Amino acid sequence: MRKPTEDVKIFADRRKRVASDLQGSALVVAAHPEHIRNHDVGFPYRQDSNFYYLTGFEEPESILVIRPGMTPETVMFVRQRDKERETWDGFRYGPEGVEQHFKVDKAYPIDEFLVHAPKLLKEVDQVYYRMFKNEHADELMKQCLEKVRLMQGRTGYGLLSIHDADTLLGEYRLVKSEIELNNLREACEISAQAHLAAMRFTRPGVTERQVQGVLSHHFYMKGASREGYNHIVASGNAATTLHYNFNDQKCKDGDLLLIDAGAEYNYFTGDITRTFPVNGKFTEEQARVYQGVLDVQKQIIAYVKPGIVFKELHEMGTSLLTDLMLELGLLSGRKDDIISALQHKKYYPHGIGHWLGMDVHDAGLYFKKGNPRAIEVNMCFTVEPGLYIPADDTSAPQKYRGIGIRIEDNIRVTSQGSENMTTSAPKEIADIEKVVGT
């Protein structure tokens, strides 16, 4: 039997917390569908973050129903035990095993969803469910809701109103508990140490894919369950492409190498970017651009504290990076006019960061009731300023063309300021030059 990855009490406590705010409603969350490539080989499976957040259960073809204050309150629909399929695909808990090991009130076979779910939802006023995320689950929910409507007879009630479950659950996931922070810190530290290992490995002549192999090797050797997202290992001009992931070029003497990679640990992921010279020594031009981006990042991190709004960090990044573009001669004119005309986006086309947690771009609203939300203690996010100057940009000074730089760290808000969870990955020029190729 495959044991649950974490203490199931963690998930039961989360369900109780969510249920306390859902009186009169029901929450329905579906597992991710199984990833199939062909008849014989499947993609590695990763459970839906919200489903795992509430259950700790990692099998596909599963649905969770929570009905606060009712009996049964927590119900799961899961695959039946199947000796033949388990021989091919691995152990299944089955309904009985789920009741025994995952602290739910009742479990049924997923094939019986349309038998039991309408009876469960008949007693609630509204349902929280995310549509258009799982086609099979959506179809089951549509049929279920129609059955509920028919069960109402001539009462005049139509279909139950549907509200977005992901928006609801994102608010619980946004502020991390101590257990969640420990998982995230571990993911960040594994990620940071892997970046350090990649720096030590890099030298002229290695390929981007070999560097990627060093990252992955370190992730798994240090206990990561998977990569948090597709690696970006971009040398030379490729670093000016934001989502470059061919990772198949040779790293050349004199070029910079940009690595954006993070490990996942217990469903929490790090997200670090470092940029460094392939040969271990920044040129004067590379160092000027790099130090400018680093200074911007450090100023923004120093500004983080409870009560500011995330939008301020975006605006601060835009303002400071535009100053840098003017200083480097990439743009000219009045700064306010440049920003108003969005001219800065030519070299800085993204935002300053994003929420971080179970997903690399984690759940949670940036605005509430139309207003930017204030950040709170134990919210976590990235700070990742960058400057990207394509080699074919004839309007840029020749000496800066082909330079792409991003520096990204993972930040937790504290009562007084912030905690940087990714400091083990060097980013000061002197520290980088000491370790690359050693």
Polypeptide structure, described:
With 438 residues, the chain is α+β, with helices and mostly antiparallel strands. The chain has two domains: 8-172, 3-Layer(aba) Sandwich (Creatine Amidinohydrolase, Chain A, domain 1); 175-435, Creatine Amidinohydrolase (Alpha-Beta Complex), CATH 3.90.230. The chain is 37% helix and 16% strand. The strands form six sheets. It has a six-stranded mixed beta sheet with strand order 4-3-2-1-5-6, with helices on both faces. A hairpin with a 7-residue loop joins strand 2 and strand 3. The protein is globular. It starts with 7 loop residues before the first helix and ends with a helix. The model has no long low-confidence stretch (mean pLDDT 95).
List the helices and strands and how they pair.
Layout (H helix, E strand, L loop, with lengths): L7 H12 L5 E6 L18 H7 L7 E4 L7 E5 L4 H7 L4 H8 L4 E4 L3 H9 L4 E3 L6 H17 L9 E3 L1 H10 L3 H24 L6 H14 L4 E2 L4 E4 L20 E6 L1 E3 L2 E2 L2 E6 L6 H20 L6 H19 L6 H6 L26 E2 L2 E2 L7 E4 L2 E4 L13 E4 L2 E5 L4 E3 L8 H7 L3
Helix pairs in contact: 1-2, 5-6, 8-9, 10-11
Give the tags.
438 residues; alpha+beta; Creatine Amidinohydrolase; 6-stranded mixed sheet; 3-stranded antiparallel sheet
Biggest sheet layout: 6 strands, mixed
Rg for CA atoms: 25 Å
As for the number of domains, it is 2
Mean pLDDT: 95
Number of strands: 19
The CATH level-2 architecture of the largest domain is identified as Alpha-Beta Complex
Roughly how many Å apart are the termini?
A: 44 Å
